[in-house]
């Protein structure tokens, strides 16, 4: 499973990190940082939760 963050669509609400802090990281201004590689095993639901929490729909899980 991979997560893609369209950083140009991110508005810095930080809801992804609130929903799944073990997976989503933020920069100093509160914007989501891109994820490298595959979602670690056991964090698949966290990835979905973070994507669902994003009001801008800037996160895609595939």
How is this structure best described in words?
This protein has two helices and two strands; from the N terminus they run E-H-H-E. Strands 1-2 form a two-stranded antiparallel sheet. The mean pLDDT is 96. With 62 residues, the protein is of the alpha+beta class. It has helices spanning 15-19, 44-53, and strands at 3-5, 59-61. 19% of the residues are buried.
β-strand number = 2
Distance between the termini: 6 Å
| Most strands sheet | 2 strands, antiparallel
Radius of gyration from CA coordinates: 10 Å
Strand order of the largest sheet: 1-2
Assembly level: single chain
What class, by secondary structure content?
Answer: alpha+beta
| Number of helices, where a helix is a run of at least 4 consecutive DSSP H or I residues | 2
Any low-confidence stretches, pLDDT <50, length ≥5? none
Task: Give the H and E element order.
Answer: EHHE
CATH level-1 class: Alpha Beta
Q: Within the CATH hierarchy, at the fold level, what is the topology?
A: Alpha-Beta Plaits
Q: Helix coverage percent of residues?
A: 10-25%
CATH architecture: 2-Layer Sandwich
As a percent range, the share of strand residues is 5-15%
Number of domains: 1
Q: Per the principal axes of the C-alpha atoms, what is the gross shape? A: globular
Mean pLDDT equals 96
């Amino acid at each position: 499973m991979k997560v893609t963050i369209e950083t140009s669509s991110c508005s810095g609400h930080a809801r992804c990190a609130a929903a799944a802090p073990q997976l989503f990281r933020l920069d100093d201004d509160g914007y989501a940082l891109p994820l490298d590689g595959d979602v670690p095993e056991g964090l698949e639901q966290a990835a979905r939760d973070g994507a669902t929490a994003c009001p801008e729909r800037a996160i895609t899980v595939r």
